[in-house]
Amino acid sequence: MPTIEISPLVKKPPRHFSDLSPENRAIAVTELGEPAFRAKQLANHYFGRHNETPEAWSDISIDSATKLATGLFPTLLTKVRSVTCDGGTTRKDLWKLHDGVLVESVLMRYPDRATLCISSQAGCGMGCPFCATGQAGLTRNLSAGEITAQVFAASRAMELGEMGAPMRLSNIVFMGMGEPLANYNAVMRTIRNITAPTPDGFGISARSVTLSTVGLVSGIEKLMEEGVPVTLAISLHTPDDELRDTLVPINTRWKVREVLAAADNYATQTGRRYSIEYAMIREINDHAWRADLLGRMLKSRAAHVNLIPLNPTPGSKWTASKPEDEKKFVEVLESYGVPVTVRDTRGREIDGACGQLAAAEKVSKRNKFKVLSTEG
After folding, report:
1. What's this model's pTM, rounded to 2 decimal places?
2. Is 92 exposed, middle or buried (0-12, 13-18, 19+ CB in 10 A)?
3. 89 vs 2 pLDDT, higher one
4. Active-site residue identified among 104, 146, 179, 277
5. For residue 274, what are the β-bridge partners?
6. Alpha carbons 372 and 312: distance in angstroms, whole number
7. For residue 361, what pLDDT is reported?
8. Using the 8-state DSSP alphabet, how is residue 130 labeled?
9. CA angle at 242 for the pair 240 and 248, rounded to the nearest 5°
10. Can you give the pLDDT at residue 235?
11. Per-residue pLDDT for 370 more than 50?
């Protein structure tokens, strides 16, 4: 699996309570001069009650609470702006991290659930040319605290009724900025924060957590051994290696059949069907013969195909497939008995594709700088 080198000039995110395992939280609390049982109290406030304000920690003296908050609850995310669409049921948040780096999360409310799409890296190093995040390149990995903070913010937003009647955050998808398996340790700490029963975590079922990967086989193999049966999603985008080498450059390291074999092993190990993510790109990967090849490859596998109408980025040559080509693609897959759905195209009018809002913010800042320079 590729390793991500972070420049020594990059200042690491400050340590946060959610960066730590429950055992290490207790140690960190005692290092601050407080009894170990305070760790459970803090976990209950943060994960259980979605509260990180020391003044509201009524079971801890204000002096102790202030000390613990200062030592273990630094501000990790600062909201730059939020944009909404779909009648207020979809909201994209742009966050600034401690070093000025920008990341995004998307909160989607449905009648029966609330789903959060989170980022695991600032940018992405996988280089997929049709993806806004891939075009931006990788800035750095996010810490477990920074990833978890996105879940905390969304949980609190739903609890406070910011998107309608109060509702519990129920589903998490690692489909935002970045390749989760290229930031393995931080992502696994976050998954445990999400799935551990309260007070050690948010208490969201592992079956309601989806991790999307372009196909880092070594990472999938490690994930199999974790004992946390999250849903695996493979960003395949084409069944043939010749095109995939171009669309998903990591394919030059692990070919389609190797990726599918790893996904099959994951399904066997966890008992969980996996998802094939397939961005429908006009006249690039939406041909009927590719649907036929994909159908033949998947017909006996525990896989479900999720077709994604491409959300094009400004100025990109890549665009969504024609409706008739999308329809034919679905029909061919169904003829092989392969389960297939077409993803809800939420968020198009709010720069819905991952990385678009952050890119727009950077352009806006550059333009403002140019104006100021000209005026000066």
Report:
1. 0.91
2. buried
3. 89
4. 104
5. 303
6. 31
7. 62
8. T
9. 85
10. 98
11. no
354: annotated active-site residue: yes
Does the pLDDT at position 111 exceed 60?
A: yes
Question: Are 244 and 251 within 8 A, CB to CB?
Answer: yes
How many residues would you count in the chain?
376
117 is catalytic: no
Among 117, 124, 128, 354, which one carries the catalytic annotation?
354
185 — pLDDT class (breaks 50, 70, 90): very high
Residue 17 token pair:
């309570």
Please tell me the distance from the alpha carbon of residue 274 to that of residue 51, in angstroms, as a whole number.
34
The residue ranges of every structural domain in the chain are: 17-72
Number of alpha carbons in the 13 Å side-chain half-sphere of residue 281: 20
Decide: helix, strand or coil at residue 210: strand
* 120-149 pLDDT, tens digit each: 999 999 999 998 888 889 999 999 999 999
Query: Crossing angle for the helix pair 62-72 and 22-31, nearest 10 degrees?
Result: 120
**CA 174 – CA 181 distance, rounded (Å):** 10
209-213/171-174 β-pairing: parallel
